[in-house]
UniProtKB/TrEMBL annotation:
Residues that hold substrate according to the record: N10, W11, K12, G174, S214, G235, G236
Subunit: Homodimer.
GO molecular function: triose-phosphate isomerase activity
Subcellular location: Cytoplasm
Enzyme Commission number(s) from the entry: 5.3.1.1
Protein name: Triosephosphate isomerase
Predominant location: cytoplasm
Residues annotated as the enzyme's active site: H96, E168
EC primary class: isomerase
Length: 258
């Protein structure tokens, strides 16, 4: 089954509202020209209202980088799904390794958030990946499969093509140290096999799995050329609109469009 590629920008803790406006204004017409690829931008909460408004009638998916699974109440500092929907978010990152490693999010919380997003029809991009120590000790698959399994358990019967996974080896994030295309394919192919065992072929063949970790215009083509890689989640190289557009164009040309 041909899956539609996705190129996703993760701005992390970067950009003021004015910077976000300038970026989005430049991105929208160029993303409209990119055929056969979904373009998403995961922006800070403070920019989301504005990016969501600007992207409303466009093909660009405005997304948040985090949220909490309760709808309202005494959760100081948190943002809920209805709040995200209210400002035009259509997707959300869940369990980015910086949330897990810096802010202590565990597999149970990540799974619960994923379920809440799926129930609400907000596209979750669920991030999984191992540390350098785990990989060097031969524990990559134990870590990654455990993260994926925990999400599937929580979803129960929910979830179809309305979930995206992102394999992001932590040692490759922001380090310039990209996984080889073969490493990316190996992990992502194994995630797809796990989805097949747990949920059957239709589910496994329909779910998009992105690679993330130091993706840039110079290496996007070889990563996208891998059979099971359906796109990329990009931090550093997404901060400049020209560089992100080059990545979008690289994904659109990968020949995987539906
Ligand atoms: P990077 O970040 O592209 O800067 O390595 C990727 C990510 O954290 O999603």
């Amino acid at each position: 089954m041909a899956r539609r590629p996705m190129m996703a920008a993760n701005w992390k803790m970067n950009k003021t509202v004015t910077e976000a406006q300038n970026y989005t204004a430049a991105l929208l017409p160029r993303a409209a020209d990119a055929e056969g690829v979904d373009v998403a931008v995961f922006v800070p909460f403070t920019c989301l209202h504005e990016v969501g408004r600007m992207a409303e009638d466009s093909s660009v998916i405005a997304g948040a980088q985090n949220f909490y699974y309760e709808d309202s109440g005494a959760f100081t500092g948190e943002i809920s799904v209805p709040m995200l929907e209210d400002v035009g978010a259509r997707a959300v990152l869940v369990g980015h390794s910086e949330r897990r490693e810096v802010f202590g999010e565990n597999d149970a919380l990540v799974a619960r958030k994923t379920k809440r997003a799926v129930e609400a029809g907000l596209l979750p991009v669920v991030c999984v990946g191992e540390t350098k120590e785990e990989r060097d000790a031969g524990g990559m698959w134990e870590k990654v499969s455990g993260q994926v399994r925990r999400v599937l358990e929580e979803l129960g019967e929910l979830g179809g093509g309305d979930i995206v996974f992102a394999y992001e080896p932590i040692w490759a994030i922001g380090t310039g140290d990209t996984a080889t295309p073969e490493d990316a394919q190996d992990a992502i192919g194994r995630i797809r096999e796990l989805l097949r065992e747990e949920r059957g072929g239709d589910f496994a063949d329909g779910v998009r799995i992105l690679y993330g970790g130091s993706v840039k215009p110079a290496n996007v083509a070889e990563i996208m050329a891998q059979d099971d890689v359906d796109g990329a989640l990009v931090g550093g190289a997404s901060l400049e609109v020209d560089s992100f557009v080059q990545l979008v164009e690289g994904a659109g040309n990968s020949g995987e469009d539906a």
